[in-house]
Every structure is written in structure tokens, then in C-alpha cells.
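Run log, item B.
One chain of 180 residues. Sequence copied directly from the ordering sheet:
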Amino acid sequence: AVFQRYGAENANGRIYPEHILKREVMKYQKMIDERRALAELNHPAESVIDLSRVAINVVEVHWEGSTLVGKIEIITSPGFRKFGIISCQGDQTANLLLSGYKIGLSSRGLGNVKQRNGILYVDEDYELVCFDVVSDPSTKNAWICQDGEVPPQYLANESTKKKENNLFEKLNKFDNWLNG
């Protein structure tokens, strides 16, 4: 999936400066390493991640130029895996993707913005909380890819394409397992 981008105005009219976003992604990497990079289905009103609404865990992020891309795991229940019963937000996320719906990711963070020349820039006090699953991401093309393909403009090399194609194979196996 595409997660975020620095140096480009998003749909919310904000620009994330490179040094701020890279700083926060470096901090976030510790959460990924500790399997604590949890996120919810939709942005909640509060900044604290509610474990009863968790849908995904981020398992990898890396930079492709100014674009942060990576992988997520969808946290599904045994009932969904065995019978297709939707009982949690991860089940709902998996069901949307398996049903062919286009959903994306959006960063949730805390901090101020400063306006310069009519443009809003995320300020130095910005803190990245997580990347939630959303219906309309503010970062352009921040979609969760169903077919294992990250949009070509964000691929750095053939090895990245191979990694993304492996994700497609895993999604197909998961779908076959659910429906098989």
C-alpha cells in the first residue's frame, strides 16, 4: 500500500515536510518492529488507538522517492477465517477488499500546521500515531492494493515488484482458503 508522501499537498491542503515525516517514520519503525503498529478502520475522534476497533497492523514501510510504501496485515477473527462471519473491524476490512472495494490508508497524527504563502505545512511538533484504513485517503493514490501491484510510479526496481506480486499470491491463497 501507499502510506504517505512528503513535499506534496494532500487533499486536506497540507504538506508534510521531508525531515518531519522521515523523523516520525523512523520513530514509527520501532512500533513496527515490536508488532505494535496497530490501526483502526476509519479515523476516530480521539488519538489513542482503541484495541476493540483495531483492523490492521503495519508490518513494513520503506521509501520509494518521496512516497512511503509498505505492507499491512489484516487482523481477522477465527470466525471470519472459518465461516466468513464478520465480528471485528479487521474482518470488515478483509471483506471489503475481498469483495473488490477500493479502500486506502491515511495517517493519524497530532500537531499544528503553519501557513506560508497560503499553504499549510505540518509543523515541527507533529507526532505520527498510526495509519488508519479509510474510504477516501488524503494522500493521493494511498490505496491498499488488492492485486499486489503498487502503482508503477512508486516502484523503485524489479525486486520491489516481485515482493508486491508475492503479496498478491498471499491474498489469493487467503481468499481461496476462506472460500474453499
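Observations after the first pass:
- Confidence is low (pLDDT under 50) at residues 155-161.
- The two ends are 26 Å apart (CA to CA).
Flagged for discussion on Thursday.
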